[in-house]
Amino acid sequence: MATDMEVVQQGTVAVNGCCKKGPGYASPLEAMAGPKESLIYVTCIYTGTGRGKPDYLATVDVDPNSPSYSKVIHRLPMPYEGDELHHSGWNSCSSCYGDPSAARRYLVLPSLVSGRIYAIDTQKDPRAPSLYKVVQPDDIIQKTGLAFPHTAHCLASGEIMVSCLGDKDGNAEGNGFLLLDSDFNVKGRWEKPGHSPLFGYDFWYQPRHNTMISSTWGAPSAFTKGFNLQHVTDGLYGRHLHVYTWPGGELKQTLDLGNTGLLPLEVRFLHNPSEAIGYVGCALTSNMVRFFKNPDGSWGHEVAISVKPVKVQNWILPEMPGLITDFLISLDDRFLYLANWLHGDIRQYNIEDPAHPKLTGQVFVGGVFQKGNAVLAEAEDGSTYQVDVPEIQGHRLRGGPQMIQLSLDGKRLYATNSLFSTWDRQFYPEMMEKGGHMLQIDVDTEKGGLAVNPNFFVDFGAEPDGPSLVHEMRYPGGDCTSDIWI
């Protein structure tokens, strides 16, 4: 793992650790010792709710010593309606640590439905970010043919790379990877011609192994209409990982995850840049699949964690998958956390032996079969049950845990509850009327364990312009799901 004095080599740049640094941290372990978070940025969505308002970026105070703790202290509305802000990333991160001219200044907000990409200036006033630039979809489509932008990662070159899930008509065949320069001008596609994946979604690169791996949600023409199991049968959803040369952009291997790996979403390598191991969360089959480099340089995969489906009554299917929609890995690569959006639980696994994760913590913070809902879960003996979910500050928890974010020191886990407006409406219709919320869970990093913090609850059902949905979270100083080390 890189140390503070290690020489970072990237292209023609060689910067010794004793000199002026770029953004981020020299290593994941140094990041763990970074300052405690005091602010968090959250993407908030009105698209799909029928409220006729633009989506916005909320700044939430997460400093327990502040008088505005657990409150939204600023809202930056986008200039257009209908965006569906989703994931977010940074213009620079720890991959640029060796470049003293780089700065983690702009938060990159791709809009999954409209195709716009916003650059938000967080440096002028971190508590009240401002709009810096809009990349219009017509410009992206004209120069690259790409649409439905999803994941943004900063590159050590200073460029920004964004995975796009389809073409302007929602066909998965048109997907690929968009490159923006450091001032958010469209440069073109990253992958070599003829090397576009079958489907798109998330990606993560591991430069010391000259590898980037991407995952495969589905065709925008399918998932934007809501989830239909027939679309899986029709081949409109993915089950593959795509392995690329980095930074070359050549598709060198496709891993078919089969029926145990349907709808592979978030993909993450271990943070230690020397490791050739990572995981992908497969939503529909609710498996965590581990991928790894073989001695011959090829990549293999195996199921590392299985969340068993639950037999249910009064639901659309007789069995309910957990629906793993997000996961992350602590910066020291000791723990993996995952969210089961339908079952309603967040889990903590010890992955010090990456091939054999051990469940060390679990907490229910929502879900379809929580007490008070119509859906009943069936035990093996045929009896029925529902899960006790705590109220927080008098609020009944809505929906299920969806996006999660971990503090740098690994001791606080934040969770929001919106997946995608169309799917929210389908599976948790009350969220359309009551909005989303954000929780904080205390983490035991010694023995393992999770506990809801009763002092933290952000109710996005009480927003000035009406209840909004909430999705991705980012700290101004970077986090374990945005920073990649070289």
UniProtKB/TrEMBL annotation:
Pfam families, per the entry: SBP56
Claim: rRNA-binding is one of the keywords in the record: no
InterPro entries per the UniProt record, alphabetical: Se-bd
Alphabetic keyword roster: Selenium
Thylakoid among keywords: no
Family: Belongs to the selenium-binding protein family.
The name this protein goes by in its record: Single stranded nucleic acid binding protein
Gene responsible for this protein: SBP1_1
